[in-house]
Amino acid sequence: MEVLVARIGKPHGIRGEVTVQLFTDAPEDRFEPGETFRVEDAAVSELTVAKARWNKDILIVGFEQVADRNQAETLRGARLFIDSDGTDDGDDDSWYEHELVGLDARVDGESVGKITALRTMAVQDLLVVELADGHEALVPFVGEIVPEVDPEGGFVTIVPPAGLFDLNTPGSNQAPDDGDDDGAAAEARD
């Protein structure tokens, strides 16, 4: 299955290099010279990495097919994909979204819902779980909270901290009504 690796940003310099917004945990592996990507949202259908380097925390990439800044400008917003079946990440704790979506979410062996998405965030990834009652829960995708992922068995095990599944339910962000406000308002009117 194809997975999104990066989105091309603005040109960098006059030699056809571009910045990229990364959607991969292994940019050093993905952007080695000779690596080829399928491209969407651009006039070209394929790009091959000629060189890649870091400028502070921004990855700058040059492609064999892009010679100057004008060509680089036409790539702005293009998305770069690879075929995940042909890659070997060598990391047993890495998962693509398509491997997780549809898995049963279990707490203490009991189903509480289904995984509907994986949100890749700057600090940590979040599993989106549609709970049995129809509400959505965001679960930090860390080993302490999601200790087991079993795609063959069709489930993930979740050890939720207290209140995790209640965070997005209606009224969960409301302070409990202790009745003091109504009394104060009634006294103010008297």
Broad shape:
elongated
How many β strands by DSSP? Answer: 12
Task: Tell me the strand percentage band.
Answer: 35-45%
Category from helices, strands and their pairing: mainly beta
Describe it for me?
There is one protein chain. The chain is mainly beta and 190 residues long. Helices cover 12% and strands 39% of the residues. The chain has four helices and twelve strands; from the N terminus they run ββαβββαβαββββββα. The strands form two sheets. A six-stranded antiparallel beta barrel has the order 1-2-5-4-3-6. Strands 10-9-8-7-12-11 form a six-stranded mixed β-sheet. β4 and β5 form a beta hairpin. The longest helix is centred in the C-terminal third of the chain and has 10 residues. The termini are far apart.
Provide keyphrases for this structure.
190 residues; mainly beta; elongated; disordered C terminus
In terms of topology, how is this protein built?
Blueprint: E1 2-12, E2 17-22, H1 27-30, E3 36-40, E4 46-55, E5 58-63, H2 69-73, E6 79-83, H3 97-100, E7 104-107, E8 110-119, E9 126-131, E10 136-140, E11 148-150, E12 155-157, H4 180-189
Parallel strand pairs: 7-12
Antiparallel strand pairs: 1-2, 1-6, 2-5, 3-4, 3-6, 4-5, 7-8, 8-9, 9-10, 11-12
